[in-house]
Design brief:
Blueprint lengths: L10 H10 L46 E4 L12 E4 L6 H9 L3 E4 L5 E3 L13 E5 L2 E7 L4 H16 L4 E2 L17 H17 L3 E4 L3 H7 L5 E5 L1 H5 L5 H5 L4 E6 L5 H8 L5 E5 L7 E3 L5
Parallel strand pairs: 1-2, 2-3, 7-8, 8-9, 9-10, 10-11
Antiparallel strand pairs: 4-6, 5-6, 11-12
């Protein structure tokens, strides 16, 4: 596997971008960067892929699941977690198979609103559907999510993730209407694309997770199976995920921190009824589960 590197906007930065509607950076789950050619083939316990309609009983994280996020590199399957959030392209298929063989699950990263130049299919996206670069990530460009070719390629990615055994996907970069994409994308376009993507994930046998902003969350929570809150405590108190909690849908919750800040973060988070996790800023799997703190 070739070397790779990654970058993210801090949660405060990308959520401010979304709130102000004046940022050319990314919005949504996370932005993960790797060098070209860092893919991993094979299958790690495939889910049913393709076909119309909603797959029966896709995996949905439980409200009290013990989980971790590791998007920077191959997963450490020895970590004591029931659920992993990872980049499937960076994983050894044997490790993925081992997770399922031991009754554990994994969610997979998908940048749904942007083109990452290092992905294997990047050259297949039509130039007319590739927009402005993300302000802080010049190798990554916004996509015209209305374009049929873009949707066809994303549908293929969904199928590929299902074949890699992914149990669910919280797609990122869905708030395309808030960014300087180079296209006249409206909130209606963003909502339509998010709903379309959730349908594809369900048809492939996977659950669909949703990560803000609030104007999308308030409209889309019935379509998505669980929430993924990132850095929302200081920003909004995570109020945008209240519809998920009211509907008894689980919310995975990440705040950036370390051993020093984790107790205070977890004290604030525990009243929300989410599944809170304190992670290092590089998302390397060095996580602190709030359930472990007394």
């Amino acid at each position: 596997m070739s070397s790779f590197s990654r970058s993210i906007l801090t949660p405060l930065a990308f959520w401010l971008c979304g709130l102000l509607g004046a940022c050319t950076g990314t919005e949504g789950t996370l932005v993960v960067r790797h060098d070209a050619g860092a893919g991993a083939g094979g299958s790690g316990g495939s889910a049913a892929a393709g076909g119309p309609g909603l797959a029966e009983n896709p995996y949905v994280p439980a409200a009290n699941v013990r989980w971790l996020v590791q998007l920077d590199g191959p997963v450490d399957i020895q970590q004591p977690a029931e659920l992993f959030f990872l980049d499937a392209d960076l994983q050894d298929p044997d490790d993925l198979a081992a997770l399922h063989a031991t009754g554990r699950r994994y969610l997979c990263y998908l940048s749904a609103g942007s083109l990452e130049s290092y992905r294997d299919d990047a050259a297949e996206f039509p130039e007319s559907a590739v927009g402005n670069p993300l302000a802080d990530f010049p190798r990554e460009h916004w996509l015209d999510v209305r374009d049929e070719a873009v949707r066809e390629l994303m549908a293929r990615r969904v199928t590929a993730l299902a074949e890699l055994g992914c149990d669910g996907v919280p797609p990122s970069s869905l708030a395309v209407h808030l960014a300087d994409t180079g296209f006249a994308l409206s909130a209606s376009d963003a909502l339509d694309y998010a709903r379309w993507l959730a349908e594809r994930l369900h048809a492939a046998g996977m659950s669909a997770g949703l990560s803000g902003p609030s104007e999308l969350t308030s409209e889309l929570w019935p379509t998505f199976d669980f929430g993924l809150g990132i850095g929302c405590l200081e920003r909004t108190g995570c109020a945008e995920y209240e519809p998920f909690r009211a509907a008894k849908k689980s919310v995975l919750h990440i705040e950036l921190g370390d051993e020093t800040s984790a107790p205070e973060i977890c004290n604030e988070a525990k009243v929300l009824g989410f599944s809170p996790l304190v992670s290092d800023a590089a998302f390397t799997g060095r996580c602190i589960a709030c359930s472990d703190l007394r």
